[in-house]
Amino acid sequence: MLRWQEFGQAWWAEARKKVKNAAVFLDPLACECLHWNGGAPSLLEAGASCIKELSTFEVVPKNIKKGVFISSTAWHGTNYNILESLIKKSNLEYCVIITSAHVSVHHLLLWGSRESNDSEVLQKIEGDVLGWMGNMNYTVEVFSFPLSTLHPTRDTVLIPSAKLARPFLTSDLGYLNEQLILFSKQVDAQTVRSINDLSNANLPLESQVQVRQLVHNLNQLIQHINGKDEIFTVGPFSRIIGTELEALNAAKTRRKTATNKVSVILVDRLLDLASATKFSSDNLYDRFIHTLDRLHEYSSDVAINMSGKPQGDLTTAPGCLAPQTDWNDGWDMMDHLFHENSQQATEWFTDVLKDSLEDSNDLKNLDDVIHQCSKDWDFIEKFTHLYQIGYGVSQIQSNDEAKRMDYLEGIRKSLVECLDDESPSPLIQVLQLLKTRKDMNLSLDDILVLLVHLYSLAGDRREDVLPAELEERFKSLVAEILVNDILSDELHDFVGVPVDEIRAHRAAQRIIEQLHCISEFRSHMKRYRTLCQRRNSAMPLECVSFFQQLVEDIFDPLFGDKNPDLEHKSGSLKDFIKTGFSLFVNVRKPKPVDNPTIILYVCGGIRPDEVKLIRDLFRQKSTTHKVLIASSHFLSAYDSLQYVFKKNLSS
């Protein structure tokens, strides 16, 4: 059986065969996937003449006759217009057009729900490109390669193009129903009353495209390991993904001959935003994401300041975490960053760096080791990846932002303790934080993240522990802050321009409405309604991860097939016969642990410390099961604000 971490590398190897003597253009998400699959050096080594962003601000060099264009999404709309502009202004005679989107995604965009054969789409793109080149005798090749994945560890996969394929809140129903009416062209068209009633057919076209692309990405990944999948879902959006994956024709064909049994568990991120909004953890990768800037806005990597200056400089390229060449050594280092506590991982990197130096007897700590390494260019050239990570680990230990994250984590824990019935509402503390935010070096964004955490934890106890009268005081204070403070870019976009009192009060009201929707997301759950737990009467209230509860349940022999919130998708005739037969005879329902391999996909992003939690739980519960932890991107606590600031699905 092929290893799933080879999936991305195998397809990038195919793409590299096409780049010799070519100018290569990639969109940002394709760049992120390339970054973890050999990087730009791998394209240059394969013969690429130059590498550029797929952008209207770029041009094809006049002396280049061959161009390779790689898009992480379908060739449609903006990126298709960019492609046309680049080709028309060039002297290209040979074009290779590559998309990570399945051909059926193009069908959906071009002809609605109508299916057609693959060649029809590819021929259309080929004809358009030949027309832009100005000579029908020139050469065009069009490929659909799944260049959509990256593998930060041996048991983790990210699909960056699926970042927008995320769960809906109740507040999205207005927009969804508006689009339904527009599409049906009937004023009295049937609308959806609950997000739990949503199906793929109810979604607007842009959401259907995102769903279809994700479903094909998952199918291609399962096909790579010759997997015969059984699908389980938790949450309304995951149910849509699971239903589409079960019904996919390519998946049905694959299941007829596949031999490796796989359970696919799809989970909605919105079931647990509490775990996503912790500010600090004992996981080095998580600390990297919370204390350093992202590298080129990649969700999966950070920019490590290698200049030795506090603010960096423009002449020194930033370091990063992704390995470039030796993948086995690279993944070994990733294992330490992800799966050991920060002290153990720091000691390991210190020891490895010391062992790599010729004279390290007098070096006592990581800072001393890094200082010594920085003097030796031969060492840096030989151990580039190790040196970058060690340099980064040294930075986040003394970083002011790391100390601020630890401070915010302390505030979070004190607020959670007030969620019990005997303590004053934590909103009282939040109001005080708003009033003293400048003295405490807190931003409004910091406090809003704390509120997302509280509302997600509170769940259906919201009205008791977060009372309406305190919410009114909160709205008044926030509206005042929005008018008078300097806002983050995200808040500024959310409030609108100019920021006046009317817009500020509307924004404050909208924030509370979104927080209510977040707290209500588990209201339909029977098993997973609460994320709060007190280990004993003497211990404070604490957050218990939804993923911890789910993994423990699926391995529980007394409960595994009786979980009311874990839905099994059964689409085959054999499954329907079993379902009907079970009405008369007690037939055991399938369980995820019936199969030796489990893929757990989180719709809406995952934290690095959650990757460690899930893997550790699987290893504790079973020595025979393998787990692949999958999602679209890595989250920081501040990424949860996308749900608070969301105006509608199109924003």
From TrEMBL:
Family per record: Belongs to the STXBP/unc-18/SEC1 family.
Protein's UniProt name: Sec1 family domain-containing protein 2
SUPFAM superfamilies with a match to the protein in the record: Sec1/munc18-like (SM) proteins
InterPro entries assigned: Sec1-like, Sec1-like_sf
GO biological process: intracellular protein transport; vesicle-mediated transport
UniProt superkingdom: Eukaryota
Entry's Gene Ontology cellular component terms: CORVET complex; lysosome
